Amino acid sequence: MNALQRSGSDSMAQSPRSPSSQAPYITVSVTDPAKMGNGVQAYISYKVITKTNFPEYQGPEKIVIRRYSDFVWLRDRLFEKYKGIFIPPLPEKSTVEKFRFSAEFIEMRRQALDVFVNRIASHHELQQSEDLRTFLLADEQTMERSRSQETGIFKKKPTDLMQIFKDVQSKVSDVVLGKEKPVEESNPEYEKQKNYIFQLEDHLAEAQKHAYRLVKRHRELGQSLSDFGKAVKLLGSCEGNSLGKAFSELGAKSEMLSIKLQREAHHLLMNFEEPLKDYVRAVQSIKATIAERANAFRHHCELGETIKFKEIDLNKLRLTRSEKLAEAEREYEQLKADGEESKRKFETIVKLMNEEIARFQEQKTIDMGVAFHEFAKGQALLAKSIAEAWRSLLPKLEACSSS
Amino acid sequence: MMGSENNYLQESSREQMETLILNEDDGINEDVSTSNSYSNYRSAMTTLSSSSSSSEHPLLTPPSIATTTAVSDPLLFPSHDSLPESPSYADVIISPLEDSPTISFSDGAGGSGEIHEKLGVSPRSQLEGSEYLRITVSDPKKEVESSNSIVPGGNSYVTYLITTNTNIQEYGGLDFRVRRRFRDVVTLADHMSEGYRGYFVPLRPDKSVMESQVMQKQEFVEQRRVALEKYLRRLAMHPVIKKSDELKEFLTVEGRMPLSARTDGVSMVLDGVVRLPKQLLGESRSVIDSQGVVEPAKGRRRDLLRLFKELRQTVVHDWGGSRSPVEEEDKEFLEKKEKLHELERQLTNASKQAESLVKAQQDIGETMGEMGLAFIKLTKFENEQAILNTQRVRAGVMKNVATAAVKASRLYRALNAQTVKHLDTLHDYMGLILAVHSAFSDRSSALLRVQTLASELSSLHSRAAKHETASSKTFGGDNSSNHKLEKLKEAIRVAEEAKSCSIRDYERIKENNRSEIKRLDSERQADFVNMLKGFVINQVAYTERIGNEWAKVVEDTSRYAKENV
């Protein structure tokens, strides 16, 4: 490891892996889930291994232990700091399943967390984040401290986010309730995009729902094949010789296929349903950004209003040559600076969002392409192996009928 | 049994799926009669077997495996692209079609005959020699009982058209058409069970408790039509019963039902022992004077008492025989009985598992279809709203997957329809076992009768003996006591005849049992092999096709394979 840290002292030819010649990279893996604690307070901890040549990380490999709430902290911090960027989504908290801690649940969560961190690490802006560094490097106590600080001021509870969503969506009800119509961008293209995002979520959620059911159906079919196989074997024991054997083989095949179906169910869950769910989460994350943009816009508009009033006040004060004029002028300048700031923030969000949307769409095409490919592959293999298994019985059955 | 869950597809999405215009050869509107409510397995089965000849046709593009009924139709021969290459399968599929007759298969084990034929599984019926009796039940019509109806509008009932095609000589003709109502079938069934004791007489379809209210429903009528057809075909399949006069009359005599109703259970039993049908005796009307047993007032009462005693004892069938006082000594018979009991247990279990297998297959097909639909909608959405090209690309991929999913869903549905038909054999045999129960109880009733008659006879003898001893003590004899003795002697004579008659009856029934058991064993072999073959071939054919659909998608999406991304 030390050899790699020597920068430039070796010739390039001798050590092609020296940092200066190598493209910057960072990959993270979330592995080794382990159950910690007991009873209600039990949780899962994960090993987070970072491999990178970023200078700030001071080392090619770092390992830390993290738990789910640490990931949540990271997501919240990034959401706060990088408005306009679609923060990668996290797997759901799912308090109920947590207590069951099934192997499948743990594996699904681990996979989702792994994808989460890697997406952050491969995003050109987010990967520079200091919070990411904290997450990937800090020891557990520091991590815990940072996490608990969050509950004070900065942490956005899910309910707050929900409120923001509601603000965005319930313009009609506001009017009905007599509240002032909230200020909104009048940008038809953006409107279209917002609608697209909202409808997309509905479509995706439905598809995902069916995909989840499909997993269950595979399991059920597997179970019934197993039961059927056993019953057929027993039935065969009532018959003699070749017929009895045929029954018994058929039953055995049925049981074997049951196992294949259970495997395919798992494969479907991990490689198809989970990516779909991830897609849904990503869209929900975009909705959060949309809400942030609406906030920023509203804030900017409100400031604009405030500035206008301040200007009027200022002019009044000028006319009356009040001693409050100086202070008012200072305040006015401050407000104008704030106004510029809020405008800048808003425009950054808009710019970032445009980039992000394009990136998002490209990424999703690939993600879904992979997921569909895996799905089709799994189904094709399953169907073929079922066909083969059954076909192998035919010679014996032929022999039965001729005897 | 199958659960009372509702339709899995909402109405709108089912319609969508059926009017879906997909690429290539699809765009086929499915007949909704292959409905998805499998809430009652039996109704599911009857719906399927009734629709087998019509509505499944549009479901499948060539090869139409098990759809059309005309065997000689060249369209039946599966086209190349979907016929699995394995030689054994091909042989099995093609060869038997060559030597099958051209008439549609309406005999034998109902719908399964068709399927078996097409899948190269020759049904037993084809091998059963040259005498055939083909029956079809169709055209249900509502009719009103016009006579003796106090209430205007009267009773309405349904009649069914029963068409028979046969080459059995005794029928004296080739084709017959009659109209019968369900009540007539019940009558026929009663005649059967009475006249063919010891045989495994197929059980008739159940009466419906709420007959009048349910009557109007088309579904019920259809269910019943199918059940009646199955029942009559089973009768026609039975080597002995197919020659029955009662059956012939039922099938051929137009107008009113020629057989008299047998509504009195007691008289049935009475008649059973007293008026032995000629089939059992193998001779013309019996010599026995039925009056001999029934006439004397005392005798009659005695008979009735005996009857009730017997009836009570035979009412509960139970395989264990622990409560039955009847001693059966035939070891071989007892062994067979035990085996059949075991068979019944396993059949029940297997049929239950078969049901849940069918349900699972149905479910997976439905969910696959629903998911496909959801993706189709998503595809449309993306295409309509696309701003970037990548969205269209994604939509294209998604459409392929969705199309494959919908196709797979249809294939699952067709697979399942066939699975139901094949595994129906299990149900057939369960029904048969009930007939076996009945035949065995005929036997134990007959044995019981022999024994009770024997004990009666011996008590008569002892009474006569006592009487003689008593009267021999009285010098000169007493007219009235002599008269009594005469009467006793007469009773003894009659009882002896009845006893020997009942013994003959019992022996006959035993023989019937024996031959039927043999027949059951051999036919069962053939039927089960066919069932297994049919089931397996069906699975192979459809899952191969499903695999092919997905393989296409794998190809289309190969650029997204993990190695390439």
UniProtKB/TrEMBL annotation, chain A:
Transmembrane segments: none annotated. Residues 9-24 have a biased composition (Low complexity). One of its GO terms (cellular component) is endosome. Pfam families: PX, Vps5. Residues 24-143 form the PX domain. Residues 318-363 form a coiled coil. Residues 1-24 are annotated as: Disordered. Keywords: Coiled coil. This is Sorting nexin 1. It comes from Abeliophyllum distichum. The lineage of its organism: Eukaryota, Viridiplantae, Streptophyta, Embryophyta, Tracheophyta.
TrEMBL record, chain B:
One of its GO terms (cellular component) is endosome. Pfam families: PX, Vps5. This is Sorting nexin 2B. Residues 103-123 are annotated as: Disordered. It comes from the Eukaryota. Gene3D superfamilies: Arfaptin homology (AH) domain/BAR domain, Phox-like domain. It comes from Abeliophyllum distichum. InterPro entries: AH/BAR_dom_sf (IPR027267), PX_dom (IPR001683), PX_dom_sf (IPR036871), SNX2A/B (IPR044279), Vps5_C (IPR015404). Residues 326-360 form a coiled coil. Keywords: Coiled coil. SUPFAM superfamilies: PX domain (SSF64268). Transmembrane segments: none annotated. Residues 138-258 form the PX domain.
